[in-house]
Design brief:
Shape: elongated
CATH architecture of the largest domain: 3-Layer(aba) Sandwich
Structural class: alpha+beta
CATH topology of the largest domain: Rossmann fold
Largest sheet: 7 strands, parallel
Helix content: 10-25%
Number of strands: 30
CATH superfamily of the largest domain: Peptidase S8/S53 domain
CATH class of the largest domain: Alpha Beta
């Protein structure tokens, strides 16, 4: 960065505004041409929405390598930590400049998009020009257009009020889309999306709707009064409202999500679209119609108004720990300005690295735009699992793009967009496209290489038209388009993850695509994708994929015994665990503990290895399925220490009949004798008379041949002698 003070830059900018603007327009290649036009037309005091991308970007290949062996949720947290720290180190000077300008009311909004080392802000023109002119770390500043909601959303029909389907029924009748995809069959198996956190990124949501309120996520990081919730009686908990960013995520009092369009903490507006998408995800039927695929999933709500807000919402939800999020906002080829497709791919890389699934609508343009531009962003980005029919194999991302079938006919609706999509250098044939395509994203060509297949889209289809969902004010209305289809897939992802929480985005995508009902052309095609989703078939496959997930395995040495403890998070077809021990490199079986078959509940196990001589030992588990499949755990080491003194313990049980155990400790290798005497001192039997190694030892004595009475047992080893009394009572 050039060494100029922030205050001086702003001072000069204010005094020489017109001259500076003219200079900047002529000599600022870092200001995108679209933004140049906006700045020329803007008044001196007008706030312009922009995002500034920095030159240095964290390698997602490196990020994957750094986190590949971490458990799923730990990986998500580590990805967030790494990218936050990287951005903080690179953005320090830029943020200092913008914060100073904010103090002078020249910047009205400032967000850090650490997921892509980018800064999103609103500023007067001279601040933007100053940033471009004086900060070498800036790659480019681009215009962040606010887009009318009617262009972003993807329904095909006007919503119509629908009365509740039930009249006090328990459970309430499901809406037609749920029946088509067999969601009730999954509920009958006990899976409702419980334990899964989903994100709803849309036009705002009437989150206190009776069908939604019980599933709204409470951000306990903002639970200032510590009462375990941030909502009370359908409003924000008064005891939590303090105007402080308690959880340090950059958003003040974000109790249930964030309004990225209005930059406030309440994502509730008069718009109904986001309420409908929320209802399809997790509406629980309180007011009479079961609308949600996953009626026990928890829901974060974020309100959007354009591309930059969609990226901020993605980052926010990942930071807050979502497992899946959905958006039925999409960005079309014909928008002005056109979508920043490279940034959508980069955000998909981020989401995938964090282990989060993203479902997205794909437009309702049918084939009106023309192949390959009917599919909108980010539903046009690659899925995390590449279907075998996609023989041109490029990169992957987090997204499942969704097509729209009618819930009554199970036939693709004509407005559902035609694929394929192309990922290539658009500027070769479309030179007016405003953003260069990075070489790593030119991986699914279509127009630039004749005969190339591009990227098959959509990935799957789901019911959109003919469905019913929640609407503002507590009621229900019809829903349609890929807007309605997409949250059905999000809800299915929640069901799948409630069945098998360990599944990766790639596995989730594979499960949903391979279990879809074949529709249209054989295989994966550019109308239905892999087919129309089937929740019950997805359940069966996800359930079959539940691993025996060993979450802990440790050993504790206590005298002559070693206690092994282990725990599983999930089990499938688990017959049990063979316990193996080694102290010379060869493992031998020393015991077996039965498993719990198939379960998604945490199970704890224990095994005690007794009478272990002093030395170093290795233990491992051989997990065995009923079908004969085996898998070994990691090896753990434990040291059994040599006793530091001789001792003879009281036999147990005592009195006894007919057998008892005598424990003793030998400090040094040597001759050991253990004899039994009667009350007159006459030797009755010699139990031990041999050379023994030092250690903690025991012997079980069977007195079946002796008469009832009092006896004495005496241990002799070296100079040590000890005598104790025992009682045989028949």
């Amino acid at each position: 960065m050039k060494k100029k003070s922030t205050v001086f830059l702003l001072f000069i900018s204010l005094i020489l505004l017109s001259q500076f603007n003219l200079f900047a327009q002529q000599s600022s290649p870092k200001i995108h041409p679209t933004l140049q036009v906006v700045l020329i037309d803007a008044s001196a005091n007008e706030m312009v929405d922009v995002y500034a991308k920095l030159n240095e970007q964290y390698s997602f290949d490196e990020l994957k390598q750094q986190t590949q062996y971490l458990p799923k949720k730990e990986k998500q947290k580590e990805v967030v930590r790494i990218l936050k720290e990287f951005a903080a180190g690179k953005q320090q000077a830029v943020l200092a400049y913008l914060e100073d300008a904010k103090q002078q009311n020249l910047v009205s909004r400032l967000d850090i998009l650490w997921a892509a080392n980018t800064v999103v802000f609103s500023a007067v023109p001279q601040v933007i020009y100053g940033l471009a002119a004086d900060f070498d770390e800036i790659a480019e500043i681009r215009y962040s257009a606010t887009i009318d909601e009617s262009l972003l959303i993807d329904p095909t029909e006007e919503s119509q009020t629908v009365p509740p389907a039930g009249n006090g029924d328990n459970p309430p009748p499901p809406q037609p889309g749920l029946v088509l995809i067999n969601a009730p069959a999954v509920w009958a198996e006990g899976y409702y999306g419980q334990g899964v956190l989903a994100g709803n990124h849309d036009s705002g949501c009437d989150w206190d709707h009776p069908d939604l309120i019980n599933n709204i996520w409470n951000n306990l990081g903002e639970d200032f009064d510590g009462d375990g919730h941030t909502i009370e009686g359908g409003v924000f908990d008064p005891g939590d409202i303090n105007g402080i960013d308690d959880d340090g995520n950059g958003y003040i009092d974000d109790f249930i999500g964030w309004d990225f369009a209005g930059n406030d903490n309440d994502p509730n507006t008069s718009a109904t679209h986001g309420t409908a998408t929320a209802g399809i995800i997790c509406g629980d039927g309180t007011n009479g119609t079961q609308t949600g695929v996953a009626p026990q999933a928890k829901l974060i709500n974020c309100r959007l108004s354009g591309e930059a807000t969609s990226w901020l919402a993605s980052q926010y939800s990942v930071d807050m720990g979502v497992d899946v999020f959905t958006s039925s906002h999409s960005y079309k080829w014909y928008f002005n300005p056109q979508p920043d497709y490279p940034m959508h791919r980069q955000m998909g890389d981020f989401e995938l690295a964090a282990g989060v699934v993203h479902t997205n609508s794909t437009s309702n343009d049918g084939n009106s735009v023309g192949i390959p531009f009917n599919i909108s962003a980010p539903g046009n980005t690659p899925p995390s699992w590449i279907h075998p029919d996609q023989t041109l194999v490029g990169g992957v991302s987090s997204v499942i793009g969704v097509g729209n079938v009618h819930a009554a006919t199970d036939v693709i609706v004509s407005s559902s967009p035609w694929g394929p999509w192309a990922w290539e250098d658009f500027q070769i044939l479309h030179p007016s496209y405003p953003y260069p395509m990075p070489i790593q994203y030119q991986d699914y060509p279509y127009e630039t290489i004749p005969g190339s297949m591009g990227l098959i889209k959509p990935d799957v289809s789901a019911p959109g038209n003919g469905t019913v969902s929640t609407t503002n004010g507590g009621g229900y209305s019809s829903f349609s388009g890929t807007s309605g289809a997409t949250p059905h897939v999000c809800g299915l992802v929640a069901l799948v993850l409630s069945i098998n929480p360990a599944l990766t985005p790639e596995q989730v995508s594979m499960v949903i695509q391979t279990t879809a009902v074949e529709k249209g052309a054989a295989g994966k095609d550019n109308r239905y994708g892999a087919g129309r989703i089937d929740a019950y078939e997805a359940y069966l496959l996800a359930f079959a994929m539940i691993p025996v997930e060993l979450t802990s395995f440790n050993a504790i040495s206590d005298g002559e015994a070693v206690t092994l403890n282990w725990q599983t998070a999930t089990e499938t077809n688990n017959q049990g665990f063979e316990i193996q021990r080694s102290n010379d490199g060869e493992f031998e079986k020393i015991g077996f503990v039965p498993g719990h078959g198939t379960t998604t509940e945490i199970q704890s196990y224990s095994f005690i290895d007794e009478n272990v001589l002093a030395g170093e030992y290795s233990y491992r588990l051989k997990q065995m399925d009923y079908d004969g499949t085996t898998e070994y755990s990691n090896v753990i080491e434990v040291e059994v220490t040599q006793p530091n003194e001789y001792s003879l313990s009281q036999n147990y049980p005592n009195p006894f009949n007919p057998s008892t155990t005598i424990e003793y400790s030998i400090q040094k290798d040597g001759l050991v004798t253990l004899k039994l005497y009667d009350v007159l001192g006459k030797e009755v039997v010699t139990l031990i008379n041999e050379l023994q190694s030092a250690g903690n030892l025991n012997i079980t004595f069977d007195a079946s041949e002796l008469s009832s009475g009092v006896y004495y047992y005496q241990l002799v080893s070296g100079e040590f002698t000890s005598t104790k009394k025992l009682i045989l009572m028949k």
